Amino acid sequence: MFDTRQLSKTNDFAPHRRPASDVEFDGVFRGLSADVPHISPRWFYDDVGSALFEAITRLPEYYPTRCELEILDAHGKQIGERLGQRTAVIELGSGSAQKIGRLLPHLASVRAYRPIDVSNAALQATSLELVGRFPQLRVDPVHADFSDRDAMHTFLQRAAGTDDAVLFFPGSTLGNFEVDYAAALLEGYAQGLRPGTPLLLGVDLVKPRETLEAAYDDPAGVTAAFNRNMLAHLNRRFNGNFDLAQWRHEARWVPRHRRIEMWLRCDEPQVVQFGEQRIEFAAGAGIHTENSHKWDRPSLHDLAETTGWSLQDWWTDRRGWFAQALLVRQDDQHKADRLTATNTGEHRPN
Ligand code: SAH
Ligand code: AVI
Fold this sequence. Notes:
globular; alpha/beta; Rossmann fold; 39% helix; 11 helices
């Protein structure tokens, strides 16, 4: 049995923010009323959404989870060696924490695990499970939004400043952000960390359209249910009345952006009550609910180099569908050299 003293109280950081519900309502309402209506994918993850995501990871068409587990199983020992003597793991978007469970046996010096997630249900369940499996481990669950750059900066300085921490960001969750925003996040994380700090990043790779679209539009309709559940979540959270039956799931590969886009589309006009506000959608209107960007080694290398990180290692599954990238926080000299090279027109080959 686990010792509950191992498990710290869930931490909420960013106490300087306005009451969360006002900020959150404004953000969601602005997105829904924009010219291209959109919602942040973080709103997928209420209790039901977290459970639906777990169901997605078991679908035959959804390859990313199996590929990433394959990499951790095949190369976990080497990854552990490359990470060196770490005392803490900070995981971004930990979900069911299945992946850290595969890595921890190769990280003998780790004493603390800090999973960060917006889903309380996922955080609580997985923290308890890990405490049970790794009795020497201290688990500090953090209920927070990892896309809040200021709060993350403060948190990383505090949490990683005293440890030799490794940041773990699996699942290709970084790919759910617009590329510019993903870059800003990586840059913000780097600024909160000491030079040499490693980031083990899971990224999904570009592959044929049919494979990608099948992974995001399964015949059993689990991904459709996951997509629609976002409206149920918003209804509950913000007193809305979206009629889920009126919205159909769409997922398509957009080669120009190298991403899968998920949308919810209505065939009939809709008037939706949202808190005190009303939002109108014309027949055929869509709400953009998710991007899932895909990468290759050169594009990931460039993303790292321009955001304060260096790509040091790269492991893929047998088919080359998914990768674990080991990035290391650059030192300031590296950054200065890179800026000089850019200003003098020198270009690094990919
Ligand atoms: N890392 C797991 C789960 C990926 S699903 C895996 O690889 O299988 C994405 C996870 O990130 C979910 O658990 C979700 O609740 C969490 N998440 C999504 N957006 C978030 C945000 N902005 N801040 C914190 N957690 C977030
Ligand atoms: C969490 N994230 C990386 C998943 C993905 O593949 O983009 C979420 C998901 N959306 C639909 N299926 C899975």
